[in-house]
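Supplementary notes for students who missed Thursday's class. We covered one full example, reproduced here. Read the sequence, then the structure, then the short commentary at the end.
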Amino acid sequence: QVQLVESGGGLVQAGGSLRLSCAASGRTFNSYAMGWFRQAPGKEREFVAAISWSGGDTYYADSVKGRFTISRDNAKNTVYLQMNSLKPEDTAVYYCAADPSISYGYHRAYKYAYWGQGTQVTVSS
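Structure (token representation):
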């Protein structure tokens, strides 16, 4: 069992930056693939970014490529999402997700067994 707790959300102006953190419980964090998804009001949950268990492979949605960076610190059981050049359309609840078995299809929400409660990101224009 893995518990995930997101933090770092908030209100920021367009063009600004935020860094989200996701702290995971459990001793096997370094064997889990991690992902970030987001859900805006009235929209389906969508993939944002993912990182393999080793950190050697990262994946991004086209909409955030070049602006967001996912990283992990296995010593701290934490995954990060650095978000730069934020746009109003980035406004959403951001969720952290984890799974020990993903080797492909990191962008598929159904592949992740564990989810955090989410953190709100609001970008004003």
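Commentary. The mean pLDDT is 95. The radius of gyration is 13 Å. If anything here is unclear, bring it to office hours.
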